[in-house]
């Protein structure tokens, strides 16, 4: 009788053991919890119902101990299978989360590199434009000086010519 009670207790505790295993495998990642929550919940409910059925059948009834033990073992096997599926789902979710994190980090690194390249290119183009502008100003200044000097000479020559004509 003690063996049957232990089997029933084991079946009842299987969901909490499955939840503990899922927590250990999945860590504290929210997405893993969401992915495995329904599997764990279903396994917990099914194991609880099976445990209740075993407990109900235990006190009396026409089943032999062998049949009861077989049912308890079957229930434990089903719960173990559900636990394994939950652990696999948790691992799959964790792997997917890690992959998404890796892709996100690569994308962020690429954007950072493009930002640095764009800033360098912008600075290079600004410096080039500033040099071209400085050169243009220097040429215009020289041309303006030459033009002003030419007009002064012409004006002096014109005034000198008028003075000679009037004298």
List keywords for this structure.
single chain, 167 residues, 93% helix, rod-shaped
List low-pLDDT spans.
Answer: none
Distance from first to last alpha carbon: 149 Å
What's the helix count? 3
The biggest beta sheet is recorded as: none
Shape: rod-shaped
β content, as a range?
under 5%
Number of strands: 0
Based on CA atoms alone, the radius of gyration comes out at 45 Å
Helical proportion? over 70%
The chain-level structural class is mainly alpha
Mean pLDDT: 81
Which sequence of SSEs, written as H and E, runs from N to C? HHH
Give an account of the 3D structure.
There is one protein chain. The protein has 167 residues and is an all-alpha fold. The chain has a domain at 2-101. The chain has helices at residues 2-26, 30-57, 65-166. It is rod-shaped and about 150 Å long. The mean pLDDT is 81.
SSE inventory with pairings:
Elements: H1 2-26, H2 30-57, H3 65-166
Summarize this, please?
Helices cover 93% and strands 0% of the residues. The protein has 167 residues and is mostly helical. The chain has a domain at 2-101.
